[in-house]
Automatic annotation (TrEMBL):
The chain crosses the membrane at residues 32-51, 307-325. Residues 490-519 form the PAS domain. This is cyclic-guanylate-specific phosphodiesterase. It comes from the Bacteria. CDD domains: EAL, GGDEF, PAS, PDC1_DGC_like, PDC2_DGC_like. It comes from Vreelandella nanhaiensis.
Amino acid sequence: MPAANVLVKYNRDKKNERYVYASFRRQRRNVYFLYIITSFLLCSLFGWFLYEQHQQEMRSAKSYSAARASTIVEWAKSVFSQSNQVLLSISELIDIQGMPDEETAMSVAVELSDRHRYAPLIQEISLLDSQGNVLVSSGNSSYQGRDLSNTDFFTALSSNQQQEIVTPLYWSDEDQAYFLHHALRLDDQEGNFTGVALVRIAPQVFVDTINRMQVQDGESIALIDPTLRLIARISQLGGRTQTGTQLVDPITQGILDNGQSPWSNVMGSFLDHRKRLFWLQRVDNFPIWVVAGMEMEQLLAEWRQRAAILLGMLIAIVLLGGWGVRHYVKRLKLELLLQKRLDEREQARAQAQAGEAYLQALIHSIQDLIFVFNTQDQITYMHVLHKEMMLEGEESLIGKHYTEIFPDALAKRFDAVFEQVRWYRQAVTIEYPLNVRRGELFFQAVVSPLENTDGSFSGTLLVARDITEAKQNEVELNIAAAAFQAHLGIIITDAHGLILKANPMFTLITGYTEEEVIGHDPHMFSSEQQGASFYRHLWRSLKKHGRWEGEVWNQRKNGEAFPGWVAVSSITNADDQLTHYVATVIDISERKSAEQEIHQLAFYDSLTGLANRRLFMDRLEVALKEVIRYRSYGALLFIDIDHFKQINDVYGHPLGDRLLKCVASQLAQQLRESDTLACLGGDEFAVLVPSLNADPVKAAQLAERIAHKLMTVIRRTSALINHSINISASIGITLLSDSNIDQEGYLQQADMALSQAKVKGRDTLCFFDPAIQAALLTSIHLERELRQALALKQWQLYYQPQVNVDGKTTGVEALLRWQHPERGLVSPGEFIPLLESTGLISEVGEWVLEKACYQLARWAQYPEFCHLTVSVNISPLQFQDADFVTRIKAIFERTKAPLQRLKLEVTESLFVEARDNARDKMLELKALGVRFSLDDFGTGYSSLMYLTQLPLDQLKIDQSFVQRVLTSSANAAIVESTIVLAESLGLDVIAEGVETQAQKAWLLEHGCHAYQGDLSGRPVPVDALEEQLVSVQH
């Protein structure tokens, strides 16, 4: 505590004593005030709690009364529901039989009695005529004939004011009793009033029901009509109230008149005048109200008992609090006396402490560490303001020698210092590191001698100061000086941006010397490749965050622009005022070149320099988003150079590469900057036109125009590469729209369109057709099933007879059939082309040949079949296999078939390429006895040259010619020429597809003596064929 505060505290006079007494009176007043407020709050809380308890009791009573009333209401509704059913049944009876006359009155009375038996809550059922007279009644014969025309309910029903009425209590003079009437108007089919169906209900029904109910203490239940006449009532107090008693209560009458239901209130009973909580609820729309009451005296009995207990507790608490306050005030008086004695004692001590307080205040303002050592170099006094600067584990160093505190090496240094101070009586400064609680710190200590008044040595004073921050700043300055000479280019500017210093690396990067740049603005290095907006953003970021870094294109002294990675930082002083800017520059020219090369390799074709598939897919993704956003159509074009493989094979790859480069260059010149031209591999190019037109027809027209233009420039490339070859291209086009098709889907569409263009004969274009896609999907599904059929051997061989002029079967052709497990027999025209395109034809063809050979070997054992030849079709793909002959020979070896009766049917396409290889294979097989027939002659690459060179035995005239010999002179001439050609070459000839006798006669007339077709027999399984042959022979 500062010395000034100590004097103020303890040097009190009489005025301070008066202040103490005033404080006592203030505390006493506060205690009394707190007691009064607390008592008031307790009383308020008590009152609020009792009020809430009272409200809870009232809510519970209301809920209970409402439940009781609802029970009676539901029961009363059942009474009127029963009477309503009776009235409706009477109405239906009258609708059927009509109003009773003297003859039918008895039967109607019986009907009413029957209905009365099933309605025990009803006293009487009657039928009134249109004049109000009782025609028939269910029970009381005296009731019959009464005139009720003057009753309110009859008047209302007969005047058509209401269709159905339930009356309040009605006094009957004849019966001297009250009743409730439930009446229904009766009309004939024309809607004319014919009478009234009437049900009389005795109030005793309600009286009996209520009397059977158990009621609690203080509870009462009553039923009243709209005029406040009592129908029935029960009370826990006992006693019964006469039915029809007229009650008088204006408030309740007003509630009934307003139709308010349910309604609740606390008021005096209009019978026994006891104060009750009443719950009033109407029985549906009927003129009866249920009144459930609960006597307030009984209802609040428990609440009053609890209130009395709580009030007693409150009084006890208030009295106890008053006693506590009185005791506390007495204690305050005692404390006042004790404080007075203490003040007097402290006044004496204050004087002694004042001097020490001044000294401690001075010492505590010193941040340095202070140690006093005696002549034995032991610490007698220490001042350490911050405990974290103490040695770890040392709380007090008093009495310890410095060698016990410092490490050995530091203690030895202090040995020399203390010795020097003791002998030379001069201050010595020493710097040293020391591990304390905060960590390793650097200290600067001044060690000074202490002397007695007589000048003798009395000890040593050590004052140590933490110089860690200064040491760190020194290290950082050394590091900064070293960094300034590092591989980074560095410049330092003043607050206005003028260069103050540049390091050697900066001068090496830019070509400027340090003298040439000092005093200039860094804008002198600008290459002008980045606009003013770029530098505005740079300065805004620098001012906001104090730092900016990014890529900047600068200019060297020789004018060469180069990319650099620049980091700029602002330097501020202790007052947060800007003083300097420091910028570092790294020359990233080589890295940018490498990135550009990597980007070129990653996204561009190495030969043509066009975008590759990866970049094209990215552009396509962006184009599809634009198509969706702008609701316009784009186009995707696939371009394929026709016969490019042959050009490569014939003229060599250098010419092919030159051609691709030339085509790429020419195509790129025809396209817009927004279009994308890509090389997808080999001779496949793709063009992406992202936006054509919002109208699909116009978009298609524009896409077609672009395709024609591209095809034209491709045709011109032969001149550009100085070569005479004809160059053309096929183009497939698909339109891009906002459909749900993804990138791969559009690529497939364009590829299918390109394939279709090639099918059409090349050098043409074709738009994508969904039918082609459907056919492709069907083909894929069929291929999957074909592979399964191959694994499960779902094949069958059918045989079609080949006959001579006499109609005798000389041989058969083995025809493959696919027995599909679900579709049955599948047409060969549907799956044979797919077998060839998938390469499965070789495996299936071998299976056919082997089965046919087994069949031929079997027939050789039977005289009736041994003369038959078997023709088997051989696919060109199968025939061109390198080991075809080897595999065929293996089949012959396994089957032991008579090969002289085996004919292999081949087509003309087999001899277009590698004719000599095909001839060698045929000669090798012919040497074994196999015969060859040329199938579909005249439909392909017919040439007299290869006919004379190949070892053929038979020509087979295609059915397309045979079926039109009678209708087409051209076809007739072709067939006639084929027959003559075969005869001249010494070959047999057979016509397939012969379906009529006229066709057979024409062929016979022109020299053809062998036939195959539906006229001689359709293809059938082997069992059916054998049956046919056997039946013909017999």
